[in-house]
Amino acid sequence: MAELASWQYPLIAALFIWGGFVRSGLGFGGAVLTLPFLLLILDQPLVFLPIIAVHLLVFSSLTVWQSHRADHSATTVNWRFVRWALLVMAIPKAIGVLGVITLPGQLISGFIFSIVTLYAVSYILNRPIRSNNKVVDTGLIALGGYVSGTSLIAAPLVVPVAASRVAREQLRDTLFALWFILVLVKLIAFLFAGVDMQWIHHLWLLPCAAVGHVLGLKFHDYALQRDTALFFRVLGVGLLVVSLVGLGRLWLG
Question: Which helix (H) or strand (E) holds 224?
Fold first, then answer.
């Protein structure tokens, strides 16, 4: 990680706490709701993506294991959906991974901010991306595979499809199983490409994510019984502001 000013370190730590909270609380969004803020601090996606990816592997597997241990009578993962999604995502995912490795960081940042702007507007209007037929579902999952390959922010494309096909009590852990496999593929590609995995920074950022993870588990239990529309609207406003500022910096820089 590039040399940072002293005030930037606590901001990055706070954002990884936030990312851990969102990830375990919702089952998705740890990257899409964190990465735009991180890129405002340091506009280098390949610095943060390996760290976020490793955190997702650690905490998604931990959450699924804990859920399974708590209820041995039923599986918490819909493996049928996971297999179907992976089959549809395979080729777009590979194309996306090659793009994030070979394309300039500034171009990837612009892509991320643009996608997140669309997501933010859908959250504010309380009109998340939805589909009602198999063709559209397949298209969203395929596009999600490509976006996952480039930036790990495919959740808003994948979640609506999963929510229509997976029982609510299985949704979070099913998404975690899918994210685990997708992220593992991307990490392997990073290693083969010689991307710096930022291992030294895991020593202080992993505990930050762990704090957020614990808080998120508590929020998940709360959210299962309540409407979270207001929560998403507030997040949408914040994301829209940050993404527009990020795009402005890229255009004017």
Answer: none
